[in-house]
Amino acid sequence: MNFTPSIVYWLEDSVYLNITNKCSNNCYFCVRNFKYGLENFNLTLKEEPQVSQVIKELSQVLNRRSWKEVVFCGFGEPLERLNCVIDVSKWIKKNHPIPIRINTNGHGYLLNKGRNVIEELKSAGVDKVSVSLNAHNKEAYDKVCHPRFKDAFHNILDFIEKAKNKMNTEITAVSLPEVNLEKAKEMAMKMDTSFRVREYYSPF
Fold it and tell me: How far apart are CA 162 and CA 144, in angstroms?
């Protein structure tokens, strides 16, 4: 593994942006609890990168080949840094015709009080949000995700409702013993979004 922390990394045909290690959840299954990174990329940041640094490194990678998408996803919650996401997204859309996705825990409105998060993301050029619901009810969510916010689960549902009317929205859940995937899928169907199961890879 490269021990220099990576801001920009890639998996298959997608480019990923690791802009923060802060997260409003402390999920017991999170890979960062067991590893320094993914593949050969170290995602454990020593400090959060400035917007200019993210753009500089991203610009060097985007021209290497034809990528499928740019994804805000690292060892933290991207919407902890909403302004960074917006500024980088605007730069991408101005300079490259490539879709932008955000992998998020759905706490955007809790993390950015008073801001119209979805509207801002849409205006910046974000095409898709993939929301890690990871549960079928509040009790399961609190058990597996240990959120910082007391009413996180219901706020995530509100985030999804707002997002689905503005951009491509997907709900995901990790295959965990505490999570009823069928019920989670039913929730996604009722909310008129797509649903995807993410496999859980035990570190032990």
Answer: 24
Angstrom distances, CA of residue 200 to CA of 44, 169, 204: 20, 22, 12
Pair of tokens at residue 166: 């503005």
CA-angle at 80, arms to 190 and 95, nearest 5°: 90
3-class DSSP assignment, residue 195 = strand
Neighbours of 202 (CB within 10 A): 6
What lies within 8 Å, CB to CB, of 173 at 6+ separation is 132, 133, 134, 135, 136, 179, 181, 184, 195, 197, 198
Count of other CB atoms within 10 angstroms of residue 33: 10
Question: Sign of the CA dihedral 39, 42, 48, 50?
Answer: negative
The length of the chain, given as a count of residues = 204
Distances (CA, A) of 145 to 105, 132, 151, 173: 10, 10, 12, 11
Torsion of CA 26, 4, 80, 135, to 10 degrees: -30
What confidence tens digit (pLDDT) does each residue in 85-123 have? 999 999 999 999 999 999 999 999 999 999 999 999 999
Q: What is the pTM of this model?
A: 0.94
